[in-house]
Amino acid sequence: MTTPMLQIDDLHVHYGAIHALHGVSLAVGQGQIVTLIGCNGAGKSTTLRTVSGLLRPTAGRVLFEGKPIHGRPPHEIVRLGIAQSPEGRGIFANLTVDENLAMGSFARRDRAEAARDRERALDLFPRVRERLKQNAGTLSGGEQQMLAMARALMARPRLLLLDEPSLGLAPQIVQTIFKIIREINAAGTTILLVEQNAHKALEVAHRAYVLEVGRIAMEGDARDLARSDAVRKAYLGVA
Amino acid sequence: MDGVAVGSLYALIALGYTMVYGILQFINFAHGDVFVLGAWVSFAAAGAVGLSVGDQTAVPAWLVWLLGAVSAGALAAALYEFVLRPRLGAGRPPATRLTWPLAGVSVVGWGTLLLLVATRGVVAGGSHTIAGGMILVLAMSTCGLVGFCLERLAYKPLRSAPRLNVLITAIGVSLLLQNLGQLEWMFGTRPDRMPTLVPDTVLFRIGHVPVRLVDVMVVATALVLMVLLDWLVFRTKMGRAMRAVSFSPTNAALMGVDVDKVISFTFVLGSVLAAAAGFLYGQKYPGLNQTAAAGWVLLGLKAFVAAVIGGIGNIRGAMLGGLLIGLLEFFAVQYVPEGASLRDIFVFGALILVLLVRPSGVLGKAVTEKV
Ligand SMILES: Nc1ncnc2c1ncn2[C@@H]1O[C@H](COP(=O)(O)OP(=O)(O)OP(=O)(O)O)[C@@H](O)[C@H]1O
Ligand SMILES: [Mg+2]
Q1: Inside any domain, residue B296
Q2: A15 lines ligand 1 (CB under 6 A)
Q3: What is the C-alpha to C-alpha distance for residues A213 and A44, in angstroms, rounded to an integer?
Q4: Is B345 contained in some domain?
């Protein structure tokens, strides 16, 4: 068996006295889209924040391409090839759109390649290209989400972590965002996708994990999960 | 002209307050003392290179201390890197934790000493203006080093502590600096006289206001430094990272920014500018009071007022605020009866007025966040 791109083993994370993750294990295979779904407060963002180094686990391991990365600071983890588009988009509202993109490639030294990636990202998100000189704080929510994803791509990650990219967006834009997620994946980037919109997420993903109050409750092939009664009832709103 | 000269000094100091606030949202009360340190280090350096106007010893004792500290730091770094680390095996801490700060400290320290020796040569050669420039660089590097150490030792351990604790620490650091400076082996408790390095000539007059060479030097140096800073903050990668960290350290870290490094850099930058202001202040007003004197505290406070009036956290605002305060003082002294004794009232009155009309400062933006 080949080593998965990302492997999380029995992860425990605390916020002070609050025990947020109670032994989460999951794996993301090379080239896949894996989705992590669950209710509010289940611990999805906590999982992503631990992978990207913003949080330190109290127990358990995070392996990236077979090597442990837990406990390393976020700025080092970016350099290993993991980029995160955070929940709430994390746009720098005091910078221009162009400067936000430039922040995405902060860790890189290959300027010419970064410039090419910038063109590619802007081809994916033409709306962002139209607003390059604008202050990023003035963008609409959908535009900010596109900018956040374009910015994450500027790091040329091998693993892209997306935290609720569809949050608060109009159905039409959600459609576009998911289409682009597929395109990014087709171009070779592995994706770990956290979503509330379970319906859409299960549609694009290869594999899925269901997180319930800090524990993995179900896992499997995304299509199988979408058909299972438990998931249909709890997450797809089907009686 | 005094207004513009002093105003540009206020601006230089205000930049340090505003940059640190922009990034850490706390008022570094010790910043005014770094400015005072800049003035006194310039004085000590001038003495050390043979420009003294009085009875000081040729090599002040703090130099010996600096030398000791620097060599100890260099030795520790070398020991750690070459002896200890290879023996720690797999779990050894990454090189950057200790090695880089120590190496940085020793490079700056040794650079300072070399520069001091070189300046001595220049003074012996008779060129006081070039020596002045070198003393400026010396003061800037020394204060940059002090700013770096203050942040690492006093503030960094409190990064996640409540803001009030950090504020109290800053006041403590301020008192520490004021009182250390009074020690006999530092700068002592007597006022001293800074050697002036440019001739006291009146270049020209605007109306009946004389423009002196020293004013032009002060304003020009401050202006060059501010233009450089503006370029750094708004045109370079490091500056972009600083602005990103000031908006959200967490998200900046996700972009690959080493937030601790940016914070250290910001402190060093602010301290370097304050040191320059200290040197220039000594050139304009050569009488240096002991480090805890009330006059110094008031100067630092007014620079802080300038930062608030310009919009705390706003770099261009700090520059503008500094000039505004300087000019306001000048006009108060010139045109208001009894103005000289009332000028502080004008400054703080302006602060109250600005806070009433535009609470976020002249160039500050009202805080709006899109969620
Ligand atoms: N900074 C924090 N301090 C304390 N508790 C926190 C913090 N952040 C999250 N938690 C708690 O940890 C748990 C998991 O939170 P997390 O943000 O990971 O949930 P989530 O699955 O992403 O939810 P949502 O869908 O609402 O984004 C929640 O119970 C939350 O209250
Ligand atoms: Mg979340």
Answers
A1: no
A2: yes
A3: 9
A4: no
